[in-house]
Design brief:
Strand content: 35-45%
CATH superfamily: Gcn5-related N-acetyltransferase (GNAT)
Structural class: alpha+beta
Helix content: 10-25%
Distance between the termini: 26 Å
CATH class: Alpha Beta
Radius of gyration: 14 Å
Number of helices: 2
CATH architecture: 3-Layer(aba) Sandwich
Number of strands: 5
Order of helices and strands: EEHEHEE
CATH topology: Aminopeptidase
Strand order of the largest sheet: 1-2-3-5-4
């Protein structure tokens, strides 16, 4: 993969549900032409490993909209397992929508 010369997206983590031994990960590639090039898959793999190496955490989680097929593929490619659907869990554009939940354990 050729090095890129601009920032194409962002990846971050934050505290998941307070009583879980987990962090939630979010990510985005901003511009459509930069998507589907493997940038986020590579970033998520590296970022996930970094978190497990540097923090005492057992679980990483990703929650995403059902229709976000590209993000679902990224999560699965990086070893995250589909755990289920949180029905009506997120208020978006005037209505409650379902969220798909993926997770990866330190032992995966």
């Amino acid at each position: 993969m050729k090095p890129i010369e601009k920032i194409v997206g962002s990846i971050w983590y934050f505290q998941s549900i307070s009583y879980f031994d987990a962090l939630e990960i979010g990510y985005i590639i901003w511009d459509e032409p930069d998507r589907s090039k493997g940038y986020m898959s590579e970033s998520l793999q590296l970022f996930s490993q970094y978190i497990f190496d540097s923090k005492k955490i057992n679980r990483l989680e990703i929650r995403l909209f059902e229709e976000n097929l590209a993000s679902r593929k990224v999560a699965e490619k990086c070893g995250y397992s589909f755990e289920g659907i949180a029905r009506g869990a997120f208020f978006h554009k005037g209505k409650n929508v379902d969220l798909y939940q993926y997770a990866k354990l330190r032992t995966d």
